[in-house]
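Lay summary. Proteins are chains of building blocks that fold into shapes, and those shapes determine what they do. In this project we predict the shape from the chain. Here is one chain we studied, written as its sequence of building blocks.
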Amino acid sequence: MPEVRLLGPGDEAALDAFLVAHADSSMFLRSNARAAGLVDGGQPLQATYVAALEDGRMVGVVAHCWNGMILVQAPVHVAALAAEAVRRSRRAATGFSGPWAQVVAARAALGLATAAAVKDSRDELYALELDRLVAPPQLASGAVRCRHPRPEDLELLVEWRTSFSVEALGAADGPGLHRASRADVLLHHERGADWVLVDDKTPVAYSVFNAMLPDIVQIGGVWTPPEFRGRGYARSVVAGSLVAAGKQGVRRAVLFADPSNAAARAAYLAIGFEIVGDYGLVLLAP
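And here is the predicted shape, written in a compact code that computers can read:
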């Protein structure tokens, strides 16, 4: 049997050394641990981290986050780790994220295999070395520009984030969702992780880095309002954000997307992304 233990200060290097071997599907774990440490005070990005060790070597980790999400990167012992993380955190599970088979196993271990979910998706995992990025013509020519949002843009982005959550994540519209959307927008803005695409002076698309490391970023929350779709704006906002990231030393990007979204798949493949695996995202019904 493995040793299962709670991680804390001093374990950062061992945790990252394990996760870097699974880098494309460990971005939330690596980025959050780097940004917020391994002490769980219930604050944004913090989590309770539990690891399995065999002969002193880390072989799996599960984190139960401040927002109830359970992040898994445990090719072995995922069931035991998920149960221990929830026991330690003493908070309810709101969803699961990580490699698909591990998400399924963790969900079952917690007795939530048949629990109602607003999102239950086996997504495709995409990756791109930034030296292979293909910039869309309208971005390369300067017809559209990608930049960080300005303060006057933020209320619009809260509306867009709300619409994204309803359409892409199955969330129910209402005051609670608007509050959560505002918190998400402000958190990404404070971290400098948000991007808007501007056509002339009009914001037309939005994207964020929902996980960031010095050499790799993860793209999420890509949104083009319905009235602006079909014009290549989504691929331009993603490509524009990656051009800027590349200038800061980032060398790789990943993302995951629902395979049923043909437009998103076409956009990502067009700018150079390749499908490298699968990724599970489960959001339990409130």
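What the prediction tells us: The radius of gyration is 19 Å.
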